[in-house]
């Protein structure tokens, strides 16, 4: 297998090459003056299975999806025998059903576009809803980075911390972290108005007095969910509050708002390279790709 370094995930792809021993294929990329993307494989892939590692987080998630599609097409034209897309953060994964009449299912549209571009298999990390993968037109898997994030906190001395999910639907995330942290786990409840986007968070039977709590979620976007959860934790007497997320999009002033709400540290992964991407997905992706060979 060869690893193709998508322009949005070059350091991660190079780390995966180093950890797996699979040769790295550099990519030449540029954006034309009119905003269109250009990519070119800078090594031979004829007769090879390839994995393209390319995250599709903001900014320019649409452009990054097109770069991925163009790389898949380039690899197939250059004679690659199989193309696996490794997309650490998959854009549009939250539009995974028709919430309101007249909507489409964006994540399924993306998958069909990628299939048409030449992708044969798909791997992502903590996709928002695993059920989406069953509708993809190729074999598709999601791996979980939560144990790696929990391990980061264990190494900082927080074993036994309470793992809290801000939403009942994400309780499985708190439970995965609990296995590593060894403390208790629980969840808040969150409801969203689909027209205004406003959310309401509530807690039932939450016992976090004097505890260290780590709020764990798949995505932080505007930060509203974490700010609301931190407020509830403070009201319930938590001593220390941290936050771990797989995909720290941190739109606008989200990071500041979360820290101002009393969260002592935000920990994310390199699915979204930036200030909080303190945990690398390279071991997780390397293990998955080695299993696939
Ligand atoms: C939604 O269900 C997700 O799991 C996250 O909780 C959500 O995307 C976070 O968004 P925000 O940071 O804007 O509250």
Across the major sheet, the strand order is 2-1-5-6-7-8
Strand content range: 25-35%
Instruction: Give the total of beta strands.
Output: 16
Unreliable runs: none
Unique ligands: ribose-5-phosphate
**In whole angstroms, how far apart are the ends?**
8 Å
Average pLDDT confidence is 96
Number of helices: 8
CATH class of the largest domain: Alpha Beta
The radius of gyration computed from the alpha-carbon positions, rounded to a whole number of angstroms, is 20 Å
Describe this protein's structure.
The protein is 31% helix and 26% strand. It has 293 residues and is α/β, with parallel strands linked by helices. Strands 2-1-5-6-7-8 form a 6-stranded parallel sheet, with helices on both faces. A 6-stranded parallel sheet has the order 10-9-13-14-15-16. Helix 4 (146-155) crosses helix 5 (171-181). The longest helix has 17 residues, at 61-77. The chain is globular and about 60 Å long. The N and C termini lie close together (8 Å). Bound molecules: ribose-5-phosphate. The site of ribose-5-phosphate (R5P) has 12 residues, from strand 13 and helix 6.
